[in-house]
TrEMBL record:
Protein name: Endolytic murein transglycosylase
CDD domains per record: MltG_like
Gene that specifies this protein: mltG
Alphabetic keyword roster: Cell membrane, Cell wall biogenesis/degradation, Lyase, Membrane, Transmembrane, Transmembrane helix
InterPro entries for the chain: MLTG-like
Keyword Transmembrane annotated: yes
Membrane protein topology class: Single-pass membrane protein
Keyword flag Lyase: yes
One Pfam entry name: YceG
Chief location bin: membrane
Function description: Functions as a peptidoglycan terminase that cleaves nascent peptidoglycan strands endolytically to terminate their elongation.
Length: 373
């Protein structure tokens, strides 16, 4: 009798426990389903939000919005600029997009965009320095010009004067600021007291588009330095291998630029300069004398060769203290890849041809034969 009661009690307890477990499982299932539903709703909502934020602000807009991306801007700074100007819907989504797609190397400068642009269009434009609008000014800066000549071109074509430009590029505080933004190109060498103009040679020769009626001098200078930086980076490995620092390479390229009127002459002339330096001979290139004189002359006189200047390669050994002009890419390429030869001398004839010699006697013979033409 007692045993039967215990069995009955056991079965009742077991049944209660089973029913309790079912209730618990049911509650857990309901909670889990509820959480899953909320997660799904949240994920869908997030997807829809991000998808919406990725779309153009106004696909039908024809408005043009000009922005400025400062040098050294992070993706967060750029995202803020774009959102503030109504070009993207959400800066956080833009930053996530950039990070997820590993987009880097955005270019500083002025851009004209539209609210109708996709995020990827904006990203590609910022990476490649491409703007949407037609330029207000297009100005060509030729190779072989000094900063003084560059300033004159800008002064004739833009709203500021030549003197305004020269004042800015000789402002030491501004130069030191630029050195922080372009550490791979601008070094302490340009601050030497005997350097005539710190940025001489560093403002790259090219055609530049400007999308504002009155571009700032700072933006112009930084745009030109950006091009120089791109070029130098292309040849950095060769420059290092040749044992030059960037300032020396830029200085060397300016000499090649001024001595070689034709592209095909530049690698050979660079080779001659290398040979002279290896022999510890002065470079004796007339363009450095003219730069030291600070004037243009059709003919350099013997008395000019004696001018005391760290730029005069008839007086100083090896390279001058700094560049004497800007230069084309092929001049820097020639410095990085000079022709191999035994030539130590060259001279130009009246037809623009260059005659090379291995010895001074051969050089004198070339002078007699070709300088009388």
């Amino acid at each position: 009798m007692y045993r039967n009661k215990r069995k009955k009690k056991y079965r009742e307890n077991l049944k209660e426990q089973t029913e309790e477990a079912k209730r618990v499982r049911k509650i857990v299932f309901i909670i889990a389903m509820t959480v899953a539903v909320f997660l799904i709703i949240g994920a869908v909502s997030l997807f829809l939000y991000v998808h919406s934020a990725m779309k153009p602000v106004d696909p039908d807009s024809e408005e043009e919005v000009t922005i400025e991306v400062p040098i050294g801007s992070s993706s967060s700074t750029i995202a803020s600029i774009l959102e503030e100007n109504g070009l993207i819907r959400n800066e956080l989504v833009f930053r996530m997009y950039v990070k997820f797609n590993n987009e880097t190397d955005f270019q500083a400068g002025e851009y004209t965009f539209s609210p109708s642009m996709e995020i990827q269009e904006l990203v590609e434009s910022l990476k490649n320095g491409i703007v949407m609008a037609e330029p207000v000014h297009t100005i060509t800066i030729p190779e072989g010009l000094t900063i003084d000549q560059i300033a004159e071109i800008y002064g004739e074509n833009l709203h500021f004067s030549k003197e305004d430009f020269l004042e800015k590029v000789n402002d030491r505080a501004y130069i030191e600021e630029l050195m922080q933004h372009f550490p791979g190109v601008l070094s302490d060498d340009i601050l030497d007291e005997e350097i005539r103009t710190p940025l001489e040679g560093y403002l790259f020769a090219s055609t530049y588009d400007f999308y504002e009626e009155k571009p700032k001098i700072e933006n112009i200078v930084e745009k030109m330095l950006t091009e120089t930086e791109k070029l130098v980076n292309q040849y950095k490995a060769e420059i290092d291998e040749m044992g030059w620092n960037v300032h020396e390479a830029v200085t060397f390229a300016s000499l090649v630029e001024k001595e070689a009127g034709k592209i095909e002459q530049r690698n050979k002339i660079a080779g001659v300069f290398y040979n002279r330096m290896e022999e510890e001979m002065p470079l004796q290139t007339d363009p450095t004398v003219l730069y030291a004189l600070g004037e243009h002359k059709d003919q350099v006189l013997y008395e000019d060769l004696e001018i005391e200047s760290p730029y005069n390669t008839y007086v100083v050994e090896a390279l001058p203290i700094g560049p004497i002009s800007n230069f084309a890419e092929n001049s820097l390429e020639a410095v990085a890849n000079p022709d191999q030869s035994d030539y130590l001398y060259f001279l130009h004839d009246s037809d623009g041809q260059i005659h090379y010699a291995e010895t001074y006697e051969e050089h004198l013979q070339n002078r007699e034969e070709h300088m009388e033409e």
